[in-house]
Design a protein that fits this description.
The protein is an alpha/beta fold. 38% of the residues lie in helices and 19% in strands. The structure holds alpha-D-ribofuranose and calcium ion (CA). Alpha-D-ribofuranose binds next to α1 and α6.
Length: 309
């Protein structure tokens, strides 16, 4: 199978950490770099988490720090979900891996200029870095194969009644990405809430007993406490790993082509994604929106990756 060239823009983040482990464990993904966004926690913490996880498992992959805040708004974080560190109570092993001198936007430009083939860009956090890149280097848009994005929702929000976190933090950035004309595969809450880990799955992951399982268990356990308290459920959705799982085996998903737009002006609806499944607006269908998943196969992929990394 031809290897897919990818870049991952993330805000680790408990579920971002699982997405990185899933990507790092699968050699068919040729990861050209990790760029880090501000979102779940402050940029310094998300960057440190990305540096340590990458430094331990795939030290050769460059990590580059992105924007400290959204394009126009103040940063909104989710430390109540991910803990102050961003990875719950997990103590990540240190590493002497260094962060790239170039910032995320310059790093992405360097990668796209150097590679012959097009690169798929995975986004699992607020889209500030990618929007700023698109504005700064429009001539490099044609080097992006597609975006695979965790974000948005047509089933209600998780930050406000209508907005999902990754969009809400920087809706203007998301608007730029959705209007870029680049192919998009979107993993909204419609599908990621179905991609959940049960307490039984969590025990299986804990019993794998390696460092990756320590990270995965700690990250999921942290989220479990949050979901039990605020959603009254013991099913922990694995939002961000859906993006990587799609690249590894798109067959476990179902979705629909649809227009996706972002609300920027609503007093109560800022950051809401309008996913026009029934084409009521008659606008160009700019995304493949995933909304079904074979959960068992997804969880098996995660467990296999944790065992093998
Ligand atoms: O709404 C879920 C998304 O917000 C995930 O990417 C999670 O990591 C947070 O960034
Ligand atoms: Ca994330």
């Amino acid at each position: 199978m031809q290897k897919k060239l990818i870049l991952i823009d993330c805000d680790p983040g408990c579920d971002d950490a699982l997405a990185l482990l899933l990507a790092f464990a699968n050699e068919e993904l040729r990861i050209k770099g990790i760029t880090v966004s501000a979102g779940n926690v402050h940029i310094n913490n998300t960057t440190e988490n990305a540096r340590k996880i990458t430094g331990y498992f795939r030290k050769e992959i460059p990590v580059s720090k992105g924007c400290e805040k959204p394009m126009f708004r103040n940063i909104v974080t989710a430390s109540e979900v991910h803990g102050e560190s961003g990875i719950g109570k997990v103590v990540l092993k240190n590493t002497d891996k260094k962060i790239e001198e170039k910032n995320a936007m310059e790093f992405i430009a360097e990668v796209l200029k150097k590679t012959e083939e097009k690169v798929t860009v995975v986004i699992t956090g607020p889209m500030t870095n990618i929007a700023v890149f698109l504005i700064s280097y429009p001539e490099l848009k044609n080097k992006i194969e597609k975006f695979v994005i965790m974000g948005g929702s047509s089933i209600g929000g998780n930050v406000t009644p209508s907005a999902e976190f990754n969009i809400y933090v920087d809706a203007e950035a998301a608007d730029i990405v959705f209007k870029s004309g680049i192919d998009i595969v979107l993993c909204p809450l419609d599908v990621t809430m179905k991609a959940y880990i049960t307490e039984e799955d969590l025990e299986d992951i804990k019993n794998i007993g390696n460092y990756a399982s320590e990270i995965a268990y700690g990250a999921i356990k942290n989220s479990l406490e949050f979901y039990k308290e605020f959603y009254n459920t013991n099913k922990v959705p694995m939002h961000d790993p859906c993006t990587i799982a799609y690249l590894l085996n798109s067959e476990i998903f179902k979705g629909n082509e649809a227009f996706v737009g972002v609300e920027l002006k609503g007093k109560y609806t800022y950051g809401e994604t309008i996913i026009d499944y029934r084409n009521k607006l008659g606008k160009n269908k700019n995304a493949l929106v995933l909304n079904e998943i074979d959960r068992e196969k997804f969880v098996e992929m995660l467990k296999k990756a944790i065992k093998s990394i």
